[in-house]
Amino acid sequence: MLTSSDKNNELFLGIDGGGSKCKTIVMNKDNEILGTGISGPGNPLHGFEQATNSITESAHLALADAGLAHIELNEIIAGVGLAGVNLPVLFDKMSAWQHPFKTMHLATDLLIACLGAHNGGDGAVMISGTGSCGFACVDEQHTIVGAHGFPHGDKGSGAWFGLQGVKQVLLSLDGLVSPTVMSAVLLNKLNCNDDTDLVEAVASKKATFYAQQANLVFDAAELGDKVALAIVDEGAEYINNIARTLTAKNPPRMSMLGGLTPRLKSWLADEIKVELAEPLNPPEVGSVIYARQQQAKESMQQSA
C-alpha cells in the first residue's frame, strides 16, 4: 500500500473539463494511468456549481477506478484544464474556488490539449469537436485562433456543421436551394413530417444538439450531395485557415483533435494534412504535464 509520502509525491490527477463532460485520470510517477473517472459538464461558463461538482465527482470516480478510494483528494495535486477559463472573469472565479485538492493548477482546455498532444513540448493544435479553435504554444508564447463560442463562432465545429445542415434542409424544403438527401435523413431522425415540424424540433437547441447532426452532413457529402459538399468545403477551409495562421508561429509539431477529427481530417487541404502529427497524449494527460511543470517552477522559486 502507498504510504502518505508516496501519495503526496507520486500521484497526480489530470482533469479535462468541457461542455459535455469532465474526465479525470490518476497518474503515477511512471506515467501510468491507474484509473479514469467521467462525470457531467465541466465548463464553468455553463454553470459554476455544476462545473465544480463535476470536477470533484470525476476525481472521486477516478480514484475509485484505480482502487485508491481510501486516498483523500486533499492529498493529491491536480492539474485542471477547463473550457471557458480563457475568459479572465471565469479564470479568476475558478482560481478562487475552495477546491478539495492538495494543490490545484488551473489552465485552459486549449493549453492542456496542446501539452498533451506534444508531450509537454512546443506545438500547435486544431480542435474540432462540439466547438472549434486553434492554439499554439511556441517559446512560452500562446496564440489562440477562434474559440469564440457557438453560434457566433466555432465555424468548422460539429455544432456549426449540424446547424448548417439544418438551415440548408429548411431552404431545400422551401425550394430555395437544390434538393438534398439530408432532408429525408434529418426529418426521419427527428421524427418530423415537414419544415414546420423541423423548426419546432430544433428551436432553442444548444450546441451539443447541433453537433449530433454533423455526421449526416458528412454522410451526404460522401455520397456526392452538392448541398452537403458546399458545407463541408466551407468548414474544412476554415480549419485550413486556422492551420495556416498557426503555422506562421513556426510550431515544431501540429496535431488535430476533437470528436469531429475522423470525419473532417480527410477534407483538409493536402498541404495541411501532410503537416499533421498524431497527438502523443490526450488532454487529461496534458493536465498532469502542466501540474508537474508548475510544481517544478515553484520548487525552483523556493530554492532560489
UniProtKB/TrEMBL annotation:
Kindly give the Pfam families that the UniProt entry links to this protein: BcrAD_BadFG
Q: Where is the signal peptide?
A: none
ATPase BadF/BadG/BcrA/BcrD type domain sequence ranges: 13-263
Against InterPro entries, the record matches this protein to: ATPase_BadF (IPR002731), ATPase_NBD (IPR043129), Euk-type_GlcNAc_Kinase (IPR052519)
Q: Note the NCBIfam families from the entry.
A: NagK_SO3507
What is the name attached to this protein's record?
A: ATPase BadF/BadG/BcrA/BcrD type
